[in-house]
């Protein structure tokens, strides 16, 4: 059977295990020899015990677990050609020519670069006597299928990334808890949520928790936001509301590109309204815990689709990313999605907010 390997790379997210499980089982079902690569690109490069054959039962009882049971890492060495050469040798040694990568845009870009260099890497391995000519011919093509595992939902091309829904469950539970104590003491709470340069978690959190104000990276508030914020909080209190909730995305910025931190917001509220104000930073709690039903199903569907994409690939099939479009798992050109994702960050750097929102909205 064909050699196929699965690995998780970059920050973990809930639902990655469901995806790993689906890849292994669909791979075995279709007659592949399936491998785990542990610890992301680092494991691919180090080889040895990090690349092990998977069995049907080795992915039993992982679907409900948060994180990734095969480990994940950020690997600097893979950014160098010398690192990728070592990785290629390890794959050829085991007959692996199909890779499923579960990670963010950086990890997917790395995989695509690896694929485009593959033939020159094999050439060098033959030249330096590390693999034979026969191996070079037999394993001439590397195929890549990606899936986005991230709580941030920051990838263009997919409606939801694996982990986002679970993170929202965690956040909502925490905010509901905060609201009850805020009510008792008539307090204002500022909650910082994750998302890196993406405001998705913050927006959905704000909508579903009846927050009074939200700060996101893609759409900085007007320059007089301190006045607008205070007016809004006062207005809510004047209608009998006993508490205020403000959501701050960790990447929130103002119109000059300067961070709007929870601390900055607190200073504004305390100085102008003298409200009893507290900050809660949710942090990595958002990335942990059991995956939701949605993320388990999403991981399963994407994992199965990724394997099918690889099995149908021909030597000139482009690397793909498996995405969710409506309720459909689809395959999209990986690099096109990566470029679109990068364009959002670029628009934000250029303070072109209108474009940033537009591009993000196209998911
Ligand atoms: O990308 C996922 C994420 O949790 C972001 O929301 C956050 O900015 C970042 O990773 C935190 O990274 P680390 O786990 O390295 O602290």
From TrEMBL:
This is ATP-dependent 6-phosphofructokinase. Mg(2+) binds at residue 105. The active site is at 152 (proton acceptor). Belongs to the phosphofructokinase type A (PFKA) family. ATP-dependent PFK group I subfamily. Eukaryotic two domain clade "E" sub-subfamily. Belongs to the phosphofructokinase type A (PFKA) family. ATP-dependent PFK group I subfamily. Eukaryotic two domain clade 'E' sub-subfamily. Residues 4-309 form the Phosphofructokinase domain. Catalyzes the phosphorylation of D-fructose 6-phosphate to fructose 1,6-bisphosphate by ATP, the first committing step of glycolysis. Substrate binds at residues 150-152, 187, 194-196, 250, 278, 284-287. ATP binds at residues 11, 74-75, 104-107. It is found in: Cytoplasm.
């Amino acid at each position: 059977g064909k050699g196929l390997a699965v690995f998780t790379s970059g920050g973990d997210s809930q639902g990655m295990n469901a995806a790993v499980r689906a890849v292994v089982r669909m791979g075995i079902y279709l007659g592949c020899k399936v491998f785990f690569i542990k610890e992301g690109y680092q494991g691919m490069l180090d080889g040895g015990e990090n690349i092990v054959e998977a069995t049907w039962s080795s992915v039993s009882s992982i679907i409900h677990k948060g994180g990734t049971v095969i480990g994940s890492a950020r690997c600097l060495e893979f950014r160098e050609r010398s690192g990728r050469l070592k990785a290629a040798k390890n794959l050829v040694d085991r007959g692996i020519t199909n890779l499923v990568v579960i990670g963010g845009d950086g990890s997917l870009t790395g995989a695509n670069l690896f694929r485009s260099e593959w033939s020159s890497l094999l050439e060098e391995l033959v030249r330096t006597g590390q693999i034979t000519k026969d191996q070079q011919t037999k394993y001439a093509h590397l195929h890549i299928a990606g899936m986005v595992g991230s709580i941030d939902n920051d990838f263009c091309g997919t409606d939801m990334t694996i982990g986002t829904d679970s993170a929202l469950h965690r956040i909502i539970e925490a905010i509901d808890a905060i609201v009850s104590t805020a009510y008792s003491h008539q307090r204002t709470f500022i909650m910082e949520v994750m998302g890196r340069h993406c405001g998705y978690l913050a927006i959905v959190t704000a909508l579903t928790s009846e927050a009074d104000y939200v700060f996101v990276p893609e759409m900085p508030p007007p320059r007089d936001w301190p006045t607008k914020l205070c007016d809004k909080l006062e207005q809510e209190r004047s209608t009998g509301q006993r508490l205020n909730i403000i959501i701050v995305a960790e990447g929130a910025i103002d119109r000059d590109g300067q961070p709007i931190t929870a601390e900055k917001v607190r200073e504004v509220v305390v100085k102008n309204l003298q409200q009893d104000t507290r900050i809660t930073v949710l942090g990595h709690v958002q990335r942990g815990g059991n995956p939701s039903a949605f993320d388990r199903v999403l991981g399963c569907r994407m994992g199965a689709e990724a394997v099918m994409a690889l099995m149908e690939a021909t030597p000139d099939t482009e690397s793909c990313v498996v995405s969710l479009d409506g309720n459909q798992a689809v395959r999209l050109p990986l690099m096109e999605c990566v470029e679109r994702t990068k364009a959002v960050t670029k628009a934000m750097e250029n303070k072109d907010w209108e474009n940033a929102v537009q591009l993000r909205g196209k998911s």
